[in-house]
Design a protein that fits this description.
Elements (H helix, E strand, L loop, with lengths): L3 E6 L7 H14 L4 E5 L7 H4 L10 H5 L5 H4 L1 E2 L6 E4 L12 H12 L4 E5 L6 H8 L3 E6 L3 H16 L6 E7 L1 H6 L5 H8 L2 E7 L2 H9 L10 H13 L17 H12 L5 H4 L4
Parallel strand pairs: 1-5, 1-6, 2-4, 2-5, 6-7, 7-8
Antiparallel strand pairs: 3-4
Helix pairs in contact: 1-11, 5-6, 9-12
């Protein structure tokens, strides 16, 4: 058995990267796959809270890397989904406490016994980000449809390309169809055109996601939630299935020109170093 290592990253914090990681891990485990999730955001761990496993942490990622425990001792199994486990980040160690090589060894060991291994990357472009992408087979970039988030995502995509990895795939989070129709929010097509990578999924904005995260119960397990439906669709795409995007997220063609013009005004105000050839 040899699973796939998927790193979930973003250019800036606050775009829902950890929530996306937790929901995709839960969705795939609910589909019968064995899934391991690694939180690599050392010092700022949150994946354990979103997954509802924070009270059971004894050892963490840095403990494993530094030999204070075996990997099996640090893994926390989800009680509702036995095929899902978490390797939490350290809350007290320095962000440089683990090297790409050490993370690679841990991820490889988990790959051998799981269908999917998710790495929840720290936001930004520092050492933690470099660690998280170094061992990935597939990289997912999460952004919200806001100019600052899209610009930060573009920076990350350039670094991924420079590292020699395969092009990442995009998840647009917290989209509000009503605001898109009014021309007050960037639409899906303009974000894709600017970032120039394949779209993996679009998640509608839903206050219930915040409530679910606070309760440690990811939305992908809720059959009544539109956001949960979107997460499950993305999980199916990760297994190779062809799944259409939710109709409610499609922009109305009649308003396309006005929305596109508004989006272009926002995006054209940005410098675009990746398209200009600079990857620094």
């Amino acid at each position: 058995m040899s699973g796939k290592i998927i790193t979930v990253t973003s250019g800036k914090g606050g775009v829902g990267k950890t929530t996306v990681t937790a929901n995709l891990a839960v969705a795939l485990a609910s589909m019968g796959h064995s899934v391991a999730a690694i939180d690599t955001d050392i010092g700022l761990r949150n994946l354990d809270i979103v997954m509802g496993l924070e009270s059971r942490i004894v050892y963490d990622l840095v403990d494993v890397a530094e030999g204070r425990c075996h990997l099996s001792q640090a893994l926390i199994k989800d009680r509702q989904l036995p095929s899902l486990c978490l390797l939490p980040a350290s809350q007290t160690s320095n962000k440089t406490a683990i090297s790409p090589h050490e993370l690679g060894l841990i991820a490889a060991e988990l790959r051998a016994s799981n269908d999917f291994v998710f790495i929840d990357s720290p936001a930004g472009i520092e050492q933690g980000f470099q660690n998280a992408i170094s061992t990935a087979d597939q990289i997912i970039i999460v952004t919200t449809p806001e100019v600052t988030a899209v610009r930060s995502a573009d920076r990350v995509i350039g670094l991924i390309e420079t590292s020699g990895k395969k092009p990442g795939q995009l998840i647009i989070n917290r989209i509000r169809p009503a605001m898109v129709r009014q021309g007050d929010m960037l639409n899906t097509y303009d974000v894709i055109e600017f970032l120039a990578i394949d779209l993996l999924g679009v998640i509608p904005d839903d206050e219930a996601i915040i409530i679910a995260a606070n309760k440690g119960k990811p939305m992908s397990g809720d059959p009544t939630s539109l956001a949960g439906h979107a997460f499950r669709n993305i999980a199916q795409r990760l297994t190779g299935e062809t799944v259409p995007f939710l109709p409610i997220l499609e922009e109305r063609a009649g308003l396309w020109s006005r929305v596109r013009a508004a989006a272009r005004r926002g995006l054209n105000s940005l410098s675009h170093p990746r398209k200009m050839g600079s990857r620094s």
